[in-house]
């Protein structure tokens, strides 16, 4: 017996197919309200990108507190020291301090003549200390102050030269040249240090200048001769080394 499809069943099937093929209506949702802009956080709580400024502020605060702590400790240590000698020296009359400075210079010169360079440097240092607490009150004292300052620095640098403390020697030379540019004694002592350190070209340049300005400066003339001799020795050695290298290459061939 053949299967038959009734009209009702065909209608139901057609409705089902149509309902399946018919696109469903798109549900339109109402737009979401925009969030209110947040207030920008200022101060250490703010974060921009991946940078957390709170950590930076904490680090900065800890660094500042450490510096403050060190400063407080330094002030305490300074306050705990006995500064009566400095105060007493400061309060002494200017002329007394200048006289004391001259006396220390004389004592230093005596020790220098005996080739006791350490003792000489000690006396020169004491003389300079007097000047550190001296404030000239008139033109005459001002000139005496300047003369003593230059003289003590010059004496100190030659004492340090013989002690082979070349950095300190150059430091005192710089002090002299600051107050007296072109001072021949200071320049000569600088040239001596440069010569000892084998900075021959620099030493020769300074020494040549001294001799050109004063052809009777025997110390500078002798130093210039020593520099030229050493430069010539270096050239001779370089020639020998170069010749040995060339000969060695020819032998290997």
Detailed description of the structure:
With 253 residues, this protein is mostly helical. Among the domains are: 63-166, Tetratricopeptide repeat domain (Serine Threonine Protein Phosphatase 5, Tetratricopeptide repeat); 182-247, no CATH class. Helix content is 74%, strand content 2%. It is built from 10 helices and 2 strands; from the N terminus they run αββααααααααα. The protein has helices at residues 7-21, 53-80, 84-91, 94-113, 117-132, 139-162, 166-179, 184-196, 200-213, 218-252; strands at 47-48, 51-52. α5 (117-132) packs antiparallel against α6, α6 runs antiparallel to α7 and α6 runs parallel beside α8.
Q: What's the layout of helices and strands?
A:
Elements: H1 7-21, E1 47-48, E2 51-52, H2 53-80, H3 84-91, H4 94-113, H5 117-132, H6 139-162, H7 166-179, H8 184-196, H9 200-213, H10 218-252
Antiparallel strand pairs: 1-2
Helix pairs in contact: 4-5, 4-6, 5-6, 6-7, 6-8, 7-8, 8-9, 9-10
* CATH C-level name of one domain: Mainly Alpha
CATH architecture classification name of one domain: Alpha Horseshoe
The largest sheet is: 2 strands, antiparallel
What fold name stands as the CATH topology of one domain?
Answer: Serine Threonine Protein Phosphatase 5, Tetratricopeptide repeat
The H-level CATH homologous superfamily of one domain, spelled out, is Tetratricopeptide repeat domain
Structural class: mainly alpha
Contiguous uncertain segments of 5+ residues = 1-8
**Strand composition percent:** under 5%
How many H/I helices?
10
């Amino acid at each position: 017996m053949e299967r038959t499809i009734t009209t009702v069943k065909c209608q139901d099937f057609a409705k089902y197919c149509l309902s399946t093929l018919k696109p469903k209506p798109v549900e339109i949702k109402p737009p979401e309200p925009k969030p209110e802009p947040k207030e920008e956080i200022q101060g250490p709580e703010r974060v921009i990108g991946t940078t957390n400024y709170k950590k930076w502020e904490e680090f900065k605060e800890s660094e500042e507190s450490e510096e403050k702590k060190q400063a407080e400790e330094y002030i305490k240590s300074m306050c705990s020291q006995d500064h009566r000698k400095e105060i007493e020296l400061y309060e002494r009359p200017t002329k007394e301090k200048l006289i004391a400075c001259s006396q220390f210079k004389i004592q230093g010169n005596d020790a220098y003549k005996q080739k006791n360079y350490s003792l000489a440097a000690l006396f020169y240092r004491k003389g300079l200390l007097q000047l550190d607490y001296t404030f000239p009150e008139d033109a005459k004292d001002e000139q005496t102050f300047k003369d003593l300052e230059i003289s003590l620095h010059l004496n100190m640098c030659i004492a340090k030269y013989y002690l082979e403390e070349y950095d300190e020697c150059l430091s005192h030379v710089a002090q002299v040249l600051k107050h007296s540019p072109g001072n021949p004694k200071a320049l000569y002592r600088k040239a001596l240090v440069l010569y000892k350190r084998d900075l021959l070209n620099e030493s020769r340049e300074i020494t040549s200048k001294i001799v050109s300005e004063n052809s009777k400066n025997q110390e500078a003339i002798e130093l210039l001769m020593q520099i030229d001799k050493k430069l010539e020795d270096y050239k001779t050695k370089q020639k020998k080394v170069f010749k040995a290298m060339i000969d060695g290459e020819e032998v290997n061939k």
